[in-house]
Amino acid sequence: MLLKVENMSCQHCVRSVTAALRALDAEARVDVDLAHGEVRAQGAFTPQAAVEALAEADYPAQLIAADD
């Protein structure tokens, strides 16, 4: 899935976003693009769960594209 994520500006943000998603699935693949404010993630969680986990970590997000 591809998510647009707000409030990301540094490597601490990258670690926090990655940790929030890996709390849902420890084996998740998380690629953060700070320049574009996007996160590509693959794991055993729904887009809604990912958005909720990121919101709880103070990184509001919205789904741009779901994986088929």
UniProtKB/TrEMBL annotation:
Keywords: Metal-binding. PROSITE patterns: HMA_1, HMA_2. One of its GO terms (molecular function) is metal ion binding. Gene3D superfamilies: 3.30.70.100. It holds the Pfam family HMA. InterPro entries: Heavy-metal-associated_CS, HMA_dom, HMA_dom_sf. It comes from the Bacteria. Residues 1-62 form the HMA domain. This is Copper chaperone.
